[in-house]
Amino acid sequence: MSDWKARTKLVHGGTRRSQYNEVSEAIFLTQGFVYDTAEQAEERFIKSGEDEFIYARYGNPTVAMFEERIAGLEGAEDAFATASGMAAVNGALMSMLKAGDHVVAARALFGSCLYILEDILRRYGVEVTLVDGTDLDQWRAAVREDTVAVFFESMSNPTLEVIDLVAVAEIAHAVGATVVVDNVFSTPVFSDAIAQGADVVIYSATKHIDGQGRALGGVILGTRDFIRGTVEPYMKHTGGSMSPFNAWIMLKGLETIDLRVRAQAASAEAIAKAFDGHEKLARMIYPGLKSHAQNTLVQSQLGGKGGTVVSLDLKGGQAAAFRFLNALEVAVISNNLGDAKSIATHPATTTHQRLPEDQKVSLGITPGLIRFSVGLEDAEDLIADISRALESA
Fold first, then answer.
1. What is the DSSP string of 43-85?
2. 55 has which bridge partners?
3. What pTM, to 2 d.p., does this model score?
4. Whole-angstrom distance, CA of residue 269 vs CA of residue 174
5. Which SS3 state, helix, strand or coil, does residue 86 take?
């Protein structure tokens, strides 16, 4: 499998067939497993071998297939599938940290990630320092000899800032800190985060991996020692594991993710170019545009691919943004992303609503900002839809 190209891994990686030799992966929808003898049960609870399972909270054949397939794509030694993307963020951080530890994180994060850092971790005695993720001098100043981990979104939500993964990893590794990267916006198709210095990579599988709005899921990827020695004990005892049915959905999603994400990114680039400099926009944000502040970094870190999301900042503030949203006919108003359907979101009043106003301002989450997740519709239809909505705004 290590010699296969990405698309081949995405179709065949991790496959386990039952005695029936099915083509499509089987769903092992069971919460427990039967042992031939009491001695076998005792041995398995001491140490489970490969393809030996105890309880669905600990592992399951369908879930294991998904874990192996995504790990093969990412170039990671192992993976642990979780119930949601936030279960993955929480599990990765909580399993490795204790009272007195120090963490440095980028301040441009999804609201729930900030809650974990600013509320939960601090409540348990973890010191957290937030920095401007695009400013390497701030990382250098914040990282200390006792820093245990750094955490950031490789591409931030929703303002699409791109963080220099290689440079931040060098800063963190100089003091022995673990580099934990939320890689959702960069996607497993365009990113090579492990090779670029990430120790732990997190995805909300709800997004591009499912990609069709069906199920929640997440995954933590890293070394085998970290996944099985640190993450698995925490997750199996706290209950954040993925269900077999959702794992099957994610397996089916992985088969087409490369095709879907590349098509979505191509449409996103077309949309960004079509509306860059539009008279009703204060900003058109897309990492693939040459005008983007980190476009040079996008070339080296993401192969020049700007991702599947564009953010439009309307000049008329919230009133204009709401008129824009209400005028859309093709794209839907929701709060997910990475879906086959184009989705428009007003972050200031939804996904990032809990942030204090001054924090929204500092992050660039203005009242007029629209996060537009580009789907699989025809790019010309989406451009026409956005054009009509801008006229209404």
1. HHHH---TT--SBTTT--HHHHHHHHHHHHHHT-SEEEEESSH
2. 32
3. 0.95
4. 37
5. helix
